[in-house]
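## retry 2 of 3
previous attempt timed out at serialization; input unchanged, resubmitting
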Amino acid sequence: MLVSRVERVIWKWEPMSAELIVNWSKGVGPSGAALSGDALSELLAELRPTSWITGPRRFAGPFSIACPGVPAGLFTVSTGRMLVRHPPDATPVEVKIGEVVVVVGGETVVLCDHMQTPVRRLERVLTREQIRSRRPVTIGQGETMVEFIGAAMRFDPGASGVLLASLPSVFVVRDEDDGELTSAVSMLRAYASDASAGSQAFLNCVVNAIFVESIRRHLSTAPPERGVLRASSDEQIGPVVALIHAAPAEPWDIGRLAREAGLARSTFCERFRALVGEPPAGYLRTVRLRRAASLLRTTGLDLSAIASRVGYQSQGALGTAFKNWSGQTPGEYRHATRSSHGLRPGDDPSVYTKAITPSD
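## retry succeeded, writing output
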């Protein structure tokens, strides 16, 4: 039953494309029109996430554990309820059966049954072997009070922080209609302890799907007040943002973009800046250079080919703009980001996926 629903979750998740999920599993960033035209999809694909999944953790008694911070993580409860504090001194968020809690920001996460329960560090509650294992682990004696599965996520170190910066440090989502989020969570629970060949790659896809759908649901109910994700939902500015992402190499000018929005030039510029946070020309430049950075990290294209793909007339023009934007030449940036992945010159980054382990 669960396997038969993989197709629904991985291949029919609208508006996310199948290419996005497949490219995530390969560790490939956005490199063409298939992942363009949707600012959220592009920002998500740019992250190139890898994940480490814990097997079911069952607590048969009071608990309060402090887990080391990671760039992002998620937890889903199958029995009972628990409180999540992120950062540790924040107001706790309750997570119940059927809900997914997402944490973002890299600070320590505290999982507990009650605020009054003394906090213990993770390594004092579980052995190193238990921490690393995806097999079920029970802590305490008697009836299980809480059971949950968690996943820690890391991202391409060269990726933009635009998306993560727009999210709260912790948020909870629920699938009210037993839809795709419920299907993905069910698959995570069913296969979290699976150690067969290919299981880690499969679970990475499932965790990524949960992460994406959780963000989509959160943004649909609590959109940010400002930024590209807010602008994308605007009736007049949204289509312009989509055009810029879909075709950054186009020779866009303010007059043409204003016409696409159906606004006078001055009104368009004022509204665009109010929603996005920067002028149209500045945002177009940012999108072009961010796309160039992605291509430098994830492909072996030479600089002239990248320049033509992102709207620069020559590699010299791109090189100057890129250094002003990033502080590095394109060559320096490519070397630095590949080195941070452990890649050597000539390696194909599209086949590289760094596994996350608790020992990192």
